[in-house]
Amino acid sequence: MEIKRLLITRFSAMGDVAMCVPVVWSLAQKYKDLEIVFLSRKNFEPIFSQLPENVKFWGIDLKKDYDGFSGLNRLFCEIKQKDFDAYADFHDVLRTKYLKFRASLAGIKTVRIDKGRSDKKRLTTKGAENCKPLKTTFVRYQDVLEKLGFDFELNFPKTSKSGKSGKIGVAPFAAHKGKILPLETTEKVVKLLSEKGLQVFLFGFGEKEKAVLEQWQDKYQNVVSLVGKSGGLKNELTLIAELDCMLSMDSANMHLASLVGTRAVSVWGATHPAAGFFGFNQDETDAVQIPLPCRPCSIYGNKECRLNDKYQCLNKITAEMIVEKILK
Question: Is 69 exposed, middle or buried, given 0-12, 13-18 or 19+ CB atoms closer than 10 A?
Fold first, then answer.
């Protein structure tokens, strides 16, 4: 059966959703007659603003409009009305498993992502030094589409920039403790960049992060906290595109920078690039990390440190190491 209308789902997290973009862009460029609908949370819509015309973003509020079992059934009824030929599940969680099950019963061809859980367990057990790098998440998404019969290369363009703006982004936070540098280290990075006359923009979310970043803004020259001031994700992406460099933990900001062609210096502690979550088109020499046999102890940074909460992987990283990368 020829596939003319394709549904793809990925609801979270922001970084994982952003990693879908190079894959969907590459598919859409190769198959220009294919209508692609990407279903996700509506606040992620700006991430998909630059995709080809045959890609439509379908943004929803899961908690408000489709909560619980009845909400999922209502969502599937809307999916069914759109007459999709195939459904690619890039998420494979309970919610999408149910949608995939209903779609299959309705005669829609369905495929789900293989997250490589056994390979990831082996990586965290044996360590990156004793394992080959795992398949990237981009390739895992591509594999889903290839199972549906699509044959294409990942060729998302890397934006070329001319000149330097003197603007540096700093995103000190992440979802889990195992990904976050000690704040005093990141503050020293901000201080050193400020002293060199660079303009530093601080990225964060929520009241706790706002309080920290505004304190840094008040202490150092040429430093601006964007928490609550950027005007939303669309404006943040515009600003990130103007940066010379984004300093990010292993978090969504690395992937947002990748989408707009901005180089990212990324910090890796409990997690590791070998797990397959490195930014698309980013340079691996820009990763800041300490080689330790215990790394990675976690794929997502959400496990307790194996060394009695010492997190040597993060505490041994110095501000000077990071600034040197940025200044290059």
Answer: exposed
